[in-house]
Amino acid sequence: MLASDNEGKRRELGELLAPLGVTLVAQGELGIRGAPETAVTFVENAVAKARHASAEAKLPAIADDSGLVVDALDGAPGVLSARYAGAPSDDRANNDKLLRALHGRNDRAAHFYCVLVFLRYGSDPAPVIATGRWHGTIAAATRGQGGFGYDPLFVPRGTTVTSAELGPAEKNRVSHRGRAARDLLAQLRDVLAP
Predict the structure, then answer these.
(1) Residue 122 CB: number of other CB atoms within 10 A?
(2) Going from the N-terminus, what domains does the chain have, and what CATH number goes with each?
(3) What is the DSSP string of 77-128?
(4) Rounded-to-integer distance, Cα 3 and Cα 85, Å
(5) Which residues are catalytic?
(6) How far apart, in whole angstroms, are the C-alpha atoms of residue 157 and residue 99?
(7) Tens digit of pLDDT for each residue in 50-87?
(8) Pairing assessment for the beta strands 109-119 and 61-70 based on DSSP bridges
(9) What is the full DSSP assignment across the chain?
(10) Beta-bridge partners for 119
(11) What residue ranges of the chain have pLDDT lower than 70?
């Protein structure tokens, strides 16, 4: 089960974790509400989300906590990435707020950060934790139709296109979530081996 109702994350993680032969079911499909995200780090939020969903469903759970870290903004939007412009989550409002915050700044370095947590059960004392980073810069304006969140503003290092202009397969190959998923896959093969 996926401790999230974010369709973009469910789709990406479903593709990335397909080698495990599992189907990710979003927590909402099981009638489970999301856990409050009150921690100051991605790791703490991901563990809390996985614990909550796994305990409620009595099933193993995978949680993702990820976001955009902008150096010139002291790490913002950070763990508040989805709610940067306030609740409820609104990608366009978040992107607009980010552009306003960076207006006139030369330092536009940023990276996406992803933490994936797997728990076998809600009280699992040994969570499997995988991480991934994707470095780049923030564009001056949104470009592209793909992806979600800050993808229309994020220009990956070594490219001139935004992550919203990448195809899904290419994005999964190079993104923070793709890197974390490959790390998680490698660890789960060991943890779940008979």
Answers:
(1) 17
(2) 7-191 (3.90.950.10)
(3) BGGGGGGTT-SSP-HHHHHHHHHHHHTT-S--EEEEEEEEEEESSTT-SS-E
(4) 23
(5) 65
(6) 19
(7) 999 999 999 999 999 999 999 999 999 999 999 999 98
(8) antiparallel
(9) -BS---HHHHHHHHHHTGGGT----BGGGGTPPPPP---SSHHHHHHHHHHHHHHHHTS-EEEEEEEEEEGGGTTTBGGGGGGTT-SSP-HHHHHHHHHHHHTT-S--EEEEEEEEEEESSTT-SS-EEEEEEEEEEE-SS---SSSSTTTTTEEETT-SS-GGGS-HHHHHHHSHHHHHHHHHHHHHHHHT--
(10) 61
(11) 194
Count other Cβ atoms within 10 Å, centred on residue 178: 21
Query: Which residues, listed in sequence order, are joined to residue 67 by a DSSP beta bridge?
Result: 113
d(CA 50, CA 123): 10
Give Cα 59 to chain centroid, integer Å: 21
